[in-house]
Amino acid sequence: MTSQLTDGSIPKIFKNEECVHPILQVTDLEETHSKNKDEETVRYRLKLSDGKFYLLATLNRQLNEMVINEEIKNFSFIKLLNYQKTVIKNTDFLLVSNLESVSTETAKIGEPTQFTNETEENEIEIEKEQEQEQEQEQETGKEQEQTTFKTQPLETGITLLRNLNTYNKNWKIKVRVTNKTEPKIYNKNGKQGQVMYVTLVDSNGDEMRATMFNDNVTKFNKVLQVSKCYYISGGMLKPADRRFSSIQSDYEINFNNYTTITLCTNTSDLPKEAYHYKKLSEIEKTQNGMKIDVLGIIAEVGELIEVKSRTGMQLKKRECILADQYMRISCNFWGEIAEKNTFPDNPVIILKGANVGEYLNKKNISASSSVRIILDPEINEAQEIRDWWYRGGGKKNQEQLGKTIGKSFSSNTNWIENDRDPLSNILNLNLGGGEKADYITSKVTITHILHDENNPVCYPSCTFENCTKKVTLQGSHWVGEKCNHRVQKPNYRYNPKIRLSDSSSSIYATAFNQICEDILGAKAEHIETLKQQGRNDEFNEIFNKAVPLEGLARIRITESEYEGKTFKRSILSSFKPITDYVLESKKLIQQINKISEN
Amino acid sequence: MSHPNSPHVTSKYLSNFQGKTVRVIGKVGQKQGTSVLLFTTDNGQIWVDRSNNLQKDYTSPIVEILGTYQNNSLMEIEFLDLSENFDFELYNQMVDLSYQLKDIFF
């Protein structure tokens, strides 16, 4: 019974924290009468408890009915829907304007005490004690774990960056400067000013950006040096703006006239660098105009070119491709950054502060002078990308693209000899995204052929020689919308969606007549007859019998747009069930050896 | 033929499996009393002692023997006839790979 009451809801209500429709118990329900100008008003006062704590409450008069007809009684469980918290004579009251009866009960749950300001302080004390007890329990009998930055005891009086907020003014942080921008001059409302940004990292590995303006730029530019450590206090906190900063912190600090910065020599607990970044796949989900930090390898470097901007200025640009094991993205460097960096030898980089953009429906990133490039960061994920690159990862993708692009439908009769591609390549390599269709050869299993009401398996087709276009019944004849032929009776041809799966992914591909006849072992006409005659069991049996079927698939991929979204369309252009196990095994061994070689 | 822990081996790996049960695939060669010579896929040879399984005869030139390796010979427990088209080269590569990539196979 106690589990019905919403645990911890009274403290939440007291602190004005979010608590949706908690279930509470009514206790000490009493009727009060008050006379006001000849009108006698009846009000009900009660206590609402969550089993541990209670608050005093009063029901709005519109709810009196519920007490009168005994929907609400003493000890009842109710669902609190709407209320207002007020303070009357130093006591907190809930004015309940809407509730729902849950159940009638016969006893008070627990021994709830009134929740007040003092209760909260006591709670915190008790929690702290419990935590300490738990910690002590964990330490005894366990080996001392390696100390990481997170569990090292804080220097007394130092606030962690993640604990800074706009309420507490007396903070002191101990940080290392990992980046400092050049002072930048700007014009605002006719006045000229200068701004400078630094990136800070603390002993917890968290990052935060700090800004300073005008005189403070001059003042602190002399003091703050990259890779040195400082104690800093005083400054204004404000919410971070993702359009200008990619640093993952809720706040930014503005160093102003109240800020003091002193050099710190006891730097053992501060990391040299904080590697915060996202995978390239995150770019897809990031809004245009936002800044992002990403990790990738420079797969291709373009020449330095000059481009004319909208305002007529000549801008320097270098187009590059940033890649990881899963995708490639266009990365354009501008201005000085483009000039200075030629990225020889395909370095792995962390790019901090790149701008997310879009061109022709494809996401890209651009980097101007405000970005920071960390070359070959010493982290595991960077090493993984480097290993993948050395094994021919990036080049393989290109090779595969080269092999399959442009091979026409009928001329490639030796498609079975191709390397097997995983289905996941369709998305990872963005096949079909170019002008021409792409093809892949994959070893797949046909797991399902859609054949329900929403997915007709065949269509009526024109019977004119060599014409297979769809025809529709118009009066007594069947007419083709696209071919304009008129026929008495249509043929039926297959075009179902077939589900193909391999260990990397699954896709739906459309398959046409010949392939389906082979797979299902029945002509489309027969299927259509079964369907029209309502012989559903036989109809379904044909489809269920055919799967699962393992085989080699030749898939043609294109892209199309619908309601603003692009998606892939796959056609199963050939399918050969696996019969030659020797060949397949040889192919597998080939692929394994290619990977093991490197 | 359910001996879950008997790995496939070729002659070069046999020395690691003294006293253990293994599977060996090979071409049937000459007979000598109750023993048969088996030519393995890595151009090796091993004598198979058939004394415990004499009631059944090999019907194919290529067989898989499940047996215990001891004293330089394979004591046969069971055998399986394989197709004449069995690809020796492929099988040999597979066995070598399974030792190269021990973590996946064992």
TrEMBL record, chain A:
Subcellular location: Nucleus
Keyword Calcium: no
Keywords: DNA replication, DNA-binding, Metal-binding, Nucleus, Zinc, Zinc-finger
GO function terms (MF aspect): DNA binding
UniProt similarity note: Belongs to the replication factor A protein 1 family.
Protein's UniProt keywords contain Calcium: no
Domain Replication protein A 70 kDa DNA-binding subunit B/D first OB fold: 159-264
Major localization class: nucleus
A Pfam cross-reference name: Rep-A_N
Record protein name field: Replication protein A subunit
Domain of life: Eukaryota
Region Disordered, residue ranges: 110-149
Domain Replication factor A C-terminal: 439-587
Domain named Replication factor-A protein 1 N-terminal: residues: 5-102
SUPFAM superfamilies membership: Nucleic acid-binding proteins
Automatic annotation (TrEMBL), chain B:
Gene3D superfamilies registered for this protein in UniProt: Nucleic acid-binding proteins
Record-linked InterPro entries: NA-bd_OB-fold, Rfa2
Segments traversing the membrane: none
GO CC term (a single one): DNA replication factor A complex
SUPFAM superfamilies: Nucleic acid-binding proteins (SSF50249)
Residues spanning the signal sequence: none
Localisation: Nucleus
Keyword NADP: no
Main location class: nucleus
GO biological process, one term: base-excision repair
GO molecular function: damaged DNA binding; single-stranded DNA binding
UniProt entry tagged with the keyword GTP-binding: no
Keyword terms of this UniProt record: Nucleus
Highest taxon in the source lineage: Eukaryota
PANTHER family: REPLICATION PROTEIN A 14 KDA SUBUNIT, REPLICATION PROTEIN A3
Similarity field: Belongs to the replication factor A protein 3 family.
Protein name: Replication protein a3
